[in-house]
Amino acid sequence: MSPASPSSSSRRGRPARAPVRPRRASLAARGLLAAAERDLQQIILDIHDGPVQDIFGALSQIQVLRHRPELQTGDASVVLGRVAASLERALGEIRNFIGAFRPPEFERRPLGAILEQLVVQHESLTGATVDFSLATPLPDDVPLSLKISLYRILQEALANATRHAGVTSFEVLARADRRHIVVRVRDRGRGFNVAKVLKKEIDVGVAGGHFGLRGMRDRVAIMNGKLSISSGRGGTVVTIRLPLS
Ligand SMILES: Nc1ncnc2c1ncn2[C@@H]1O[C@H](COP(=O)(O)OP(=O)(O)OP(=O)(O)O)[C@@H](O)[C@H]1O
Ligand SMILES: [Mg+2]
Q1: Closest ligand 1 atom to the C-alpha of 238?
Q2: What is the 3-class SS of the chain, one letter each residue?
Q3: Percent of residues, the chain, with pLDDT higher than 90
Q4: Which residue's alpha carbon is nearest to atom 12 within ligand 1?
Q5: What are the residue boundaries of the structural domains of the chain, listed by start?
Q6: What is the whole-number distance in angstroms between the Cα of residue 52 and the centre of ligand 2?
Q7: Is the pLDDT of residue 221 over 50?
Q8: Looking at the domain that runs over 105-243, which CATH code has it been given?
Q9: Ligand nearest to the CA of 56
């Protein structure tokens, strides 16, 4: 028991300090609750951006098989191969969550390498050409939560540029100043009405799609950062600015 516990204080006739402790405790509890809520939101986003996408992919391939019984064995086995690959990816992601709720290699790899690898992976999966550059070196000691957030946000921005901009090449630039990491994704594609898209408050959920920009916005808000998206006829520029601490 600590010397400042309420029972020892009151025995000596000093004013009880108990009222202070519950307040401190409730502040701490509130802090913990806020952190738990933040973690929960991140888990939801990670599940949407990871395994849910892969399981949808697998399901739609299975629908192809169900609705096209005329498919020859060879074609059917190609589709089944895709189903297996999607499910394997989903399983890998879920294992990561269960293991440590985070991709373990993120802990030790520098942020610049993580972002670059994501870009290279995106290029090989989609055939897009992405001009990736580091305008300044990125610091070595970046918190894990920032690495995971930036990875997910960039993943969505790359996907959007490839899926919606109507271009096959675009650029990603990352830099750091003393207090922030800044990542900018710029495409010279068809552009879109950002305010209109973000205004739609209907809860479309995962099945309805259009979850990506809101997910980016939420992730940036959780990290106390800033997200700016400007878009028009000349294309789209997405800028993510996250504080280092
Ligand atoms: N770089 C871009 N160029 C053109 N249009 C874009 C771009 N990024 C987003 N959009 C538009 O904004 C819409 C909303 O994007 P958002 O990422 O929220 O949803 P989505 O990509 O359609 O679905 P998902 O939930 O799988 O991300 C897109 O459907 C598209 O019309
Ligand atoms: Mg999207």
Answers
A1: 1
A2: CCCCCHHHHHHCCCCCCCCHHHHHHHHHHHHHHHHHHHHHHHHHHHHHHHHHHHHHHHHHHHHHHHHCCCCCHHHHHHHHHHHHHHHHHHHHHHHHHHHHCCCCHHHHCCHHHHHHHHHHHHHHHHCCEEEEEECCCCCCCCCHHHHHHHHHHHHHHHHHHHHHCCCCEEEEEEEECCCEEEEEEEECCCCCCHHHHHHCCCCCCCCCCCCHHHHHHHHHHHCCCEEEEEEECCEEEEEEEEECC
A3: 36
A4: 197
A5: 1-101, 105-243
A6: 14
A7: yes
A8: 3.30.565.10
A9: 1
